[in-house]
Amino acid sequence: MVSKLLVSWNVSIYYECSPILLTALLIYILTYFLIPYVHLLVMILAVVASIFLWVILNQAWQGTRRNCLKMVAVGSSFYLILSLMLIYMLVTLEPSYPGDDTFMRAIGIVMGIVVTTVAFISCFIFTGFLNKKKLN
After folding, report:
1. Closest-CA residue to 120 (of 66, 84, 90, 91)
2. CA–CA dist 105, 81 (Å, integer)
3. CA torsion angle for 24, 77, 110, 32 (degrees, to 10)?
4. Residues in the chain with pLDDT < 50?
5. How far is CA 2 from CA 5, 8, 15, in A?
6. Which residues contact 42 (CB under 8 A, 6 or more apart)?
C-alpha cells in the first residue's frame, strides 16, 4: 500500500515538475542566442500552449459550476495581481536621476499591463466559460 502511494506520488511529482524544468532549460539555452526573433517565437508558443492547457482544464473539470468558478478565480488571480503591481509601478514611476526620461519605461510598463490584463481575461474565459461537449 505504501509503496503504491510512493510510486504514484513520484509519478505525479514528475509530471508536475517536468514542464517547469523544461521551461527553465529552454530559457537557459535561449540566453546563448543573440537573435531576438527566437525569443519572440518562444513567447508566441507560450501563449498557444497556455490557451491549449486552459481549454484542457475546462474540458477535464468534473465538479460543480460554482467550484469551477472558484478554481478559475484562483488560477487567473496571478495575472490580476501582476496587473495591479504594474499599475502601482506606473503610478509611482520616478526618474533614476535628475533629467532622466521615463517615457520608454512607462511604455514598457503599459505594455506589461495590457499583456497581463489580456492574460487574466483569457484565462478566466477559457477555463470557466467555454461550453463543454458531452461525449457519449
Report:
1. 84
2. 20
3. 0
4. 1-16, 135-136
5. 5, 10, 20
6. 26, 30
CA separation for the pair 123, 73 (Å, rounded): 9
- As a whole number of angstroms, the distance between CA 51 and CA 65 comes to 20
> Which amino acid, one-letter code, is at 114?
V
What are the distances in angstroms from CA 65 to CA 18, 50, 123, 125? 30, 22, 16, 13
Residue 119 to residue 53: CA distance in whole angstroms: 13
pLDDT, tens digit, for every residue of 20-37? Answer: 677 778 778 877 877 777
Residue-level length of the chain: 136
Q: Is 100 exposed, middle or buried (0-12, 13-18, 19+ CB in 10 A)?
A: exposed
Q: Could you tell me which of 27, 121, 127 has the C-alpha nearest to residue 68?
A: 127
